[in-house]
Design a protein that fits this description.
Elements: E1 12-16, H1 21-32, E2 36-41, H2 44-58, E3 62-66, H3 75-86, E4 91-94, H4 109-137, E5 141-146, H5 159-179, E6 184-191, H6 200-204, H7 206-214, H8 228-235, E7 246-249
Helix pairs in contact: 1-2, 1-8, 4-5
Length: about 260
């Protein structure tokens, strides 16, 4: 008998940062398990390419909603438009993120606040809109926040990013405890170093690449697709009793002394 534990048929997932990299891989992976998907990111061209791939390969519906999540005042309107188009959202994946590298003593308040807006505040606002929607429908819901190794430990030159991702983990735990009464499970995934367009400069830096590989027991950079299994677990019936947790998908990084 085929198990339905990981079946997402009949559900709709909203994924931010879905135009490329991890967000796009998660959107495709959730669709491959039966979900229709709402794709949110800055670039409409990237979103339309992702939607075309998803609809062609999976037969699921993919809606496109271009939005720069730094523009916080556009989130509530966008979410309302999503509900108009899709009817409901059962799964929210907060994946959009940004970073700026530089010495912590030099980081400007403007840069710090911009990283916090995209990585943390936008996730809060989307989660609030999602919670209100799920309470109105009377149904359960799932929130998956994409964290980072920076939820576990710090490294130089990414103060704003580390603060935002640590805050996202705190938000995950708080909402999990507070919204359990509304049957909303809230969890996070902490990727290790993943090979995407955004990490090409890091992969090309011989010293950094050697350092990253030396810290990863599995001996390679992760692929965006490596995160799909954990996301499906947390989005599906298989994850019914999991909430308030972070799952590091990091090739063993956090296990290494």
């Amino acid at each position: 008998m085929e198990s339905k534990l990981f079946d997402l048929a009949g559900r709709t997932a909203l994924i931010t940062g879905a135009g490329r990299g991890i967000g796009r891989a998660l959107a495709l992976g959730l669709a491959q398990h039966g979900a229709d998907v709402v794709l949110v990111a800055r670039s409409e061209d990237q979103l339309r390419a992702a939607a075309a791939q998803i609809e062609t390969e999976t037969g699921r519906t993919a809606w496109v909603f271009p939005l720069d999540l730094e523009q916080l005042d556009g989130i509530e309107t966008m979410f309302a438009q999503v509900l108009e188009a899709a009817g409901a959202v059962d799964i929210l994946v907060n994946c959009a993120g940004t970073t700026v590298r530089g010495p912590s003593e030099d980081v400007s308040l403007e840069i710090f606040n911009r990283v916090m807006r995209v990585n943390l505040t936008a996730a809060l606002l989307l989660s609030q809109a999602f919670c209100k929607h799920r309470r109105q429908t009377g149904g359960s819901g799932r929130i998956i926040n994409i964290g980072s190794l920076a939820c576990h430990a710090g490294r130089p030159t990414i103060a704003a990013y580390t603060c935002s991702k640590t805050g996202l983990l705190g938000l995950t735990k708080t909402l999990a405890v507070e919204w359990a009464q509304h049957h909303i499970n809230v969890n996070a995934i902490g990727p290790g170093y993943i090979a995407t367009e955004l990490t090409v400069p890091l992969q090309a830096d011989a010293d950094f690449n050697q350092w990253a590989l030396s810290k990863t027991p599995l001996g390679r950079w992760g692929k965006p697709e490596d995160l799909v299994g954990t996301a499906v677990l947390l989005a599906s019936r298989a994850g019914d009793f999991i909430t308030g947790q972070i799952f590091y998908v990091d090739g063993g990084w956090t296990a290494l002394i």
